[in-house]
Design brief:
about 200 residues, alpha/beta, ten-stranded mixed β-sheet, 10 strands
């Protein structure tokens, strides 16, 4: 299904349709404040496995992150967040950043990596934040496979490419082309892993 959702004022009915699909193990393609993501409910194991098949990767080795509604969600899935790290997160979120943190035991086993870390995002995008708020827990966030820019920016083309794999393609307008900035916060000092859409000063 290709579902049009208003980019600034998401219609509650459309959001409920998306969340109902997620709760039943659906896989969605949705807008963020950077590029479109491929996602599912983090507690739906079969949906996680489906995303990993689409991306051709092992769940425990996959570069996947959680999209949270706000910072209160972060504390459930990350442990030992120091005051300085919390200040850093508060300063940059919501925004185009992925923060790598130590994973808590709340992270589903299928997603627990050997490094015991998790990437966490709070995108500044009304659609995805409305989805996560209505769902009541984070969704998984993975990048879309694609050969051309249109493959991961144009919802109509994404629908044509993934209509057999994704249950819903959320059309919230043309997406961005630059991914999030990734910051590793598992050491004493934050380390820039990938420079992306979010500005970062060492």
């Amino acid at each position: 299904m290709l579902l049009h959702v208003h980019p600034e004022n998401p219609q509650p009915r459309q959001i409920r349709t998306i969340v109902d699909s997620l709760k039943k193990g659906g896989v969605i393609i949705y807008p963020t404040d950077t590029i479109y993501g491929l996602g599912c409910d983090i507690f739906q194991h079969k949906a996680i496995e489906k995303i990993c098949r689409i991306k051709k990767m092992d769940p425990q080795k996959a570069q996947l992150s959680f999209v949270c509604h706000d910072l209160s969600d972060l504390s459930n899935f990350a442990k030992q967040i120091s005051r300085s790290t919390y200040r850093l997160l508060k300063e940059h979120l919501p925004g185009p950043y992925t923060f790598i943190l130590q994973a808590s035991k709340q992270v589903p086993k299928i997603l627990q990596s050997k490094k015991e870390t998790i990437g966490l995002r709070v995108p500044a995008n009304p659609i995805v934040r409305a989805i996560v708020k209505e769902l009541g827990n984070p969704i998984l966030n993975g990048s879309l496979p694609g050969e051309t820019v249109e493959d991961y920016t144009d919802p109509e083309i994404m629908y044509a490419n993934f209509r057999n794999e994704a249950d819903i393609v959320v059309n919230g307008g043309i997406g961005g082309t630059i991914p999030s900035t990734i910051i590793d916060c598992t050491k004493d000092e934050p380390i820039l892993i990938r420079e992306g859409a979010g500005e970062w000063k060492e």
